[in-house]
Amino acid sequence: MNWTKHLATAAAVIGLTATAISAQAQTLRLAVTDIVGLENLQREYAGFQKILSEKSGMKVELFPVPNRTAAVEALNAKKIDLVLTGPAEYVVFKKRTDAKLVVGFSRPEYYGSVVTMVGSGIDGVEDLKGKKVALGDVGSTSRHLSPIQVLADLGLRPGQDVQILHINRNVAVEAMKRGDVAAIGINRTDLPGLSKRHPDVVFKVIARGRDLPNDVLLAGTHVSDAVVAQMKKVFSENSEALVAAVLLGPDENQKFQGMKFIPSIADADYNYVRKMYATIGQAQYAAFVGD
Q: What domains, with CATH codes, occur in the chain?
């Protein structure tokens, strides 16, 4: 009998079993960068936390963070293990934490647009030269970075050929009606609401941005590859239940209506976002815009 072979086989089985037990016993702390406060985090993600814990066999805990920078620091300090964040935030997380990609959270029809009014005399982006354009919150992927990149892609130099302002979108519409700004930058989901709130305005999209990369679930470098692989498998095998759990969030999570989990995401998928950072003069991707 080949005792060496049997001992090696037994050791391998024990090792695999130990890895599985370790993964099942592990606690994973999850942060979400665009939700502030434990109460808000629980309202949006308690259902998702519960289902993810059940399906993975691991204990998932929600960990509130006050802002994106705090989430980076917590991930580097191993105070959190997982973080759900947007595409603009991902490039900074990658730069500052080298976090591992777990799974993408798709957002159907997620893109930025440049919009004006019918009758304004603005028929294309070229007509905006020398005028003011109102964008959303500084650092917003779809209301700031995407529209400004659209302008750049179509030949304008933001800040030189056009003056960029950052204004609440409802205030921006009023400014556009007065002629104080020539166009606004918004995302696709904003337009129906703006049309309802401003029935006297007929909006006209003069430029549409590329579909934006997915929101993404990241794991810290301290999380083992075995656990990351197990989490990927959990999302792949329990997609329907986990999507339903995400959509239990009554407010912020409704942006994920129609979503799917994307297991095959890659860092290169976010290069267009890096281009946006370069356009606004932050090509190092080392700090969150607007923090």
A: 27-108+213-285 (3.40.190.10), 112-208 (3.40.190.10)
